[in-house]
Design brief:
The complex is a heterodimer.
Chain A: H1 2-17, H2 23-40, H3 44-67, H4 72-77, H5 79-84, H6 90-119, H7 127-151, H8 158-185, H9 191-220
Helix pairs in contact in A: 1-6, 2-3, 2-6, 3-6, 3-7, 3-8, 6-7, 6-9, 7-8, 7-9, 8-9
Chain B: E1 4-14, E2 17-28, E3 32-36, H1 43-50, E4 58-64, H2 69-75, E5 77-80, H3 92-102, H4 107-116, H5 132-145, E6 150-154, H6 162-177, E7 181-185, E8 195-198
Helix pairs in contact in B: 3-5, 4-5
């Protein structure tokens, strides 16, 4: 347990320090939110109708942006060798890295998500649900995205590959979260969508460390 | 505690190329083995296979005195190569503390390592500011900070100056005297008593 704490705090420190921490992902998120009205016209009713969905989809894209480097740096500088000769199984190491990624990038993005949606015209009352969806969904994005990051290890232009691998896997959480938001906006309550999103997130957090660890072993060996 | 390392009939392939086959040796606690051989002959691959990072095509790697190879690799093996896993943006002290805690060392071990390798003046520097030799000294510190019986060293001497080479020789001597094992890939002879094994001969 001590080793897990040691690794987790190091990953947090690296996550905050590395290339401005969550700032690039946040800036990217803000940019998408600002570009949409410019491209789609300033008809506020039309914007308000799609606001929660757009804020939600932009969140998925912004989380993707920072996932690319999740394992790559450790792979390049030999850090992965050090992690593999440590006391914890590689599966747990991968899970800890994803958790730290969620806290350093996913949580700041989730805090920003309600602002993005409200700026686009979503009702303020929807903000708590947007925040919860973004927080829970962000965890799924971190874990599922980690699979892509691990599979793309050692590939040139890995970033594009990560996007291609991960985008289809992002579809279910995006659908569930979007369904929760729209149902709630129409007054039907977002509980069922949110529960499905939580279920998917739990499955992703439980299963993807196995895939990540296998992909890392393959890349190293 | 590892009492002996035994390799039997080991073959390693990288892609289509076979690096070596039917390699066998036995190393008792308290002994060192120097791996020599041309560039690309498979010295580093052998070290990585022993550490469990690379799957051999055939053969057995047995850690005697430890119930399972997996346990030995997570608790009893140090692998130190060119890629040392140090992060450029962190200070030497942060990296040393992490490596020691991660690999199972205590606070006393860190102090001993700082003292032994004269790291005090480097501790507050970011790792990216260190020279190659200083960086290697920082990486070597984990051997002392977190004591583990089997050292797998890849070109440990390369970037070190004469005085530090003597220091490393001392470190290796006392490790062997304490019942440790060393397998080192080298081009120059090891400065301690060691059996030499030429790979790919």
């Amino acid at each position: 347990m001590k080793a897990a704490g040691v690794l987790f705090s190091r990953e947090l420190a690296l996550g905050w320090g590395r290339g401005g921490g969550p700032l690039p992902a946040l800036a990217f998120y803000a940019a998408i939110t600002l570009l949409l009205p410019l491209a789609g016209g300033s008809d506020t009713d039309r914007l308000a109708a799609v606001a929660p969905g757009v804020a939600w989809m932009a969140l998925a894209l912004a989380s993707l942006l920072s996932l690319e480097r999740l394992f790559e740096r450790d792979f390049e500088d030999g850090g992965i060798d050090l992690l593999m000769t440590g006391p914890l199984p590689l599966e747990l190491v991968c899970a800890i890295k994803c958790l730290a990624q969620w806290i350093t990038t996913g949580a700041p993005l989730a805090l920003f998500a309600p602002f993005a949606a409200v700026m686009l015209g979503a009702p303020i009352g929807l903000s708590p649900l947007i925040f919860i969806c973004a927080l829970v969904g962000g965890l799924a994005f971190s874990f599922v995205g980690g699979i892509g990051a691990a599979l793309a290890l050692g590939a040139r232009r890995g970033g594009l590959l990560v996007a291609a691998i991960v985008m289809p896997l992002f579809a279910p959480p995006v659908i569930f979260g979007g369904a929760a938001l729209y149902a709630s906006q129409l007054g039907a309550g977002g509980a069922s969508g949110l529960l499905l999103l939580m279920g998917w997130t739990a499955a992703a957090a439980a299963l993807s460390p196995l895939a990540m660890a296998a992909a890392c072993r393959n890349a190293v060996g | 505690m590892i009492t002996a390392l035994e390799i039997r009939g080991l073959s390693i392939r990288r892609g289509e190329r076979r690096l070596f086959r039917d390699l066998a040796f036995r190393l008792e606690a308290g002994a060192a083995l120097a791996l020599t051989g041309a560039n690309g002959s498979g010295k580093t691959s052998l070290l990585r296979a022993i550490a469990g990072l690379l799957r051999p095509a055939a053969g057995d790697i047995v850690f005697e005195g430890v119930a399972e190879a997996e346990v030995a690799r997570h608790e009893a093996v140090h692998l130190l190569g060119h890629a040392d896993g140090l992060k450029g943006s962190r200070t030497a002290r942060e990296e040393l503390d992490f490596q020691a805690a991660w690999l199972g060392g205590g606070a006393g071990g860190v102090a001993a390592a700082i003292d032994r390798l004269a790291l005090t003046p480097l501790l507050d520097l970011e790792v990216r500011r260190l020279s190659a030799g200083q960086r290697r000294r920082l990486a070597l510190a984990r051997l002392i900070a977190a004591p583990r019986p089997l050292w797998l060293l890849d070109e440990p001497m390369a970037p070190l100056d004469t005085a530090r080479r003597a220091l490393l020789a001392e470190m290796m001597q006392s490790h062997l005297a304490g019942g440790g094992l060393i397998v080192a890939a080298v081009h120059d002879p090891l400065p301690i008593d060691a059996v030499t094994l030429e790979i790919g001969a």
